[in-house]
Amino acid sequence: MTSILFLLGSSRRDGNAELLAKEAAKYLPSNVTQRWIRLSDYPLNPFQDVRHEDEWTYEMPIGNARILLEATLVADVLFFACPVYWYSLPAPAKLYLDHWSHWIRIPEINLRAKMKGKKMFLTTAMADSEVQESEPLIRSLQLTARYLEMVWCGHVLAQANAAGDVLHQPETLSNASRLLLSHV
């Protein structure tokens, strides 16, 4: 059975990136389990990089970090739904990825081995019509997938500003509805 973790990175509920993710999920077979996590509902402390201190150790995550770690590890697929914020990931999604730098340094977690082969997807939206301005966000996730030997499976980008704009874009909705089907 395939398990998909939908990671909602926006600070807006029911934004366009999230609506596209919901469109993609609509057509999943019933044997695919889905878990939806709104990252802003699981606030994380700022990541502290202590690698260059005299005696550094990373402790096992606790609280929200532990919840997110466990959800990440049990998922076969990570599906990010994140709008473009200042050409990049929204703060909750970026902070979540920053914590991977913590998790990867704890031998008991064995993050690198456990992420290898997992699939990654993205739905995103941006107000601007200059598509290249979404590239830093998309490339960030592609490089993350490559670094951990995950499988980058693609993305859908909408040009939308107000919440719900994507609902009036049949081609974008169609692209979202097909995004997962060929990979799950």
How much of the sequence is in beta strands?
15-25%
User: Percent of residues in helical segments?
Assistant: 25-40%
Given as residue ranges, the uncertain stretches (5+ residues, pLDDT < 50) are: none
Structural class: alpha/beta
Question: At the first level of CATH, what is the class?
Answer: Alpha Beta
Provide a short characterization of the protein structure.
This protein has 184 residues and is α/β, with parallel strands linked by helices. The protein has six helices and five strands. It has a single domain (3-179), classed as 3-Layer(aba) Sandwich (Rossmann fold), CATH 3.40.50.360.
Properties at a glance:
single chain; 184 residues; alpha/beta; Rossmann fold; five-stranded parallel β-sheet; 6 helices
Describe the structure.
- The protein is α/β, with parallel strands linked by helices and 184 residues long.
- It has one domain (3-179): Rossmann fold (3-Layer(aba) Sandwich), CATH 3.40.50.360.
- It has six helices and five strands.
- The protein has helices spanning 16-26, 63-74, 91-103, 111-115, 135-147, 170-179, and strands spanning 3-8, 33-38, 77-81, 119-126, 151-159.
- The chain has a five-stranded parallel sheet with strand order 2-1-3-4-5, with helices on both faces.
- It is globular and about 55 Å long.
